[in-house]
Amino acid sequence: MDHPSDPNIDFIEMREAIEDTPRDESTGQLWLLAVVVGSCLIFGILVFGIWSWRISHFPHAVATIAEVWNREVIIKDRLGFETGRKTITEGRISFTRTHAGKSYPCEMTIELGGPKDNFAIGQKLDVVPATGTCQRVDVVGRIRD
């Protein structure tokens, strides 16, 4: 049994003392919050980095706005319930995409912004289409004359 010279006595008493101390659950919640926020931050940086790389390395084109109109859209929450409505500005743009030394005429309809952005027929836009297609166009900005 327990003998004063037994070296395990201190270890057993120390382990029992540690097990008897109350645990603070808020520390675990703070770690969970830090992990979630950190993961979201890393994901956002990755998405922005990939978009920036695409804008920097893919060929740009100059698009001309051929038609502009406003449309009211329904805003829904995650469950599909209507939470409101807003007006967006859409337009038909045309541009010439180049790939591997060849040019391809493109025309598509995209969301330009809102009515307050004052898009007009004939304005020029700096766009970056996806490689090998006229689709998935990123509008970088307006070209000022």
Description:
This protein is an alpha+beta fold and 145 residues long. It folds into 2 domains: 8-56; 60-143. Helices cover 32% and strands 39% of the residues. It contains 2 helices and 5 strands. The protein has helices at residues 8-20, 25-57, and strands at 61-76, 82-99, 102-113, 124-128, 138-143. It has a 5-stranded antiparallel sheet, with no helix packed on it. It is elongated, with a radius of gyration of 30 Å. It comes from Rhizobium hainanense. The chain crosses the membrane at residues 30-51. Keywords: Membrane, Transmembrane, Transmembrane helix.
Per DSSP, the total helix count is 2
Structure class: alpha+beta
Average pLDDT, to the nearest integer?
Answer: 83
Q: Approximately what portion of the residues adopt beta-strand conformation? A: 35-45%
Computed Rg: 30 Å
Along the chain, the helix and strand elements come as HHEEEEE
Described by strand count, sense and barrel closure, the largest sheet is: 5 strands, antiparallel
- Fraction of residues in H or I helices: 25-40%
Anisotropy-based shape:
elongated
Count the beta strands: 5
Distance between the termini: 94 Å
Organism: Rhizobium hainanense
Transmembrane segments: 30-51
Keywords: Membrane, Transmembrane, Transmembrane helix
Protein name: DUF3592 domain-containing protein
Short synopsis of the structure:
This is DUF3592 domain-containing protein. This protein has 145 residues and is an alpha+beta fold.
